[in-house]
Amino acid sequence: MESNNPNSSNIQSYKYWSIFSLFCCCLPIGVLATIYSFQSENAGNAGNFTEAQKSSNIAKYLNIAALVIGLIIIITVIAINASALAKAH
Questions:
Q1: C-alpha angle with apex 24: 20 to 26, nearest 5 degrees?
Q2: So where are the chain's domains?
Q3: Is 43 exposed, middle or buried (0-12, 13-18, 19+ CB in 10 A)?
């Protein structure tokens, strides 16, 4: 019979994705994602698997948000630059 309790081995902290989001996507959301990913890792190491899973989910959603916002910003900057370049010629 399977247990519904998550354990440390299957809870992802999203630490590396959070660090990537911090430097490459959206700084404020990346900071929050990094904080939650480390909280998830620490809670899992302490045996608090419910808190680890909760922090892991928050880190994942923050990373998704940071990635989407970062892509929107990059696409917007490229479009504005391309438009300015086209007007210059």
A1: 100
A2: 13-88
A3: buried
Instruction: Measure Cα distances from 50 to 10, 26, 37, 62, 78 in Å.
Output: 12, 28, 14, 19, 42
pTM exceeding 0.90? no
Number of other CB atoms surrounding residue 12 within 10 Å: 16
| Nearest C-alpha neighbor of 59 from the set 81, 89, 39 | 39
Radius of gyration of the chain (CA): 18
Segment 31-83, tens digit of pLDDT: 999 999 999 999 999 999 999 999 999 999 999 999 999 999 999 999 999 99
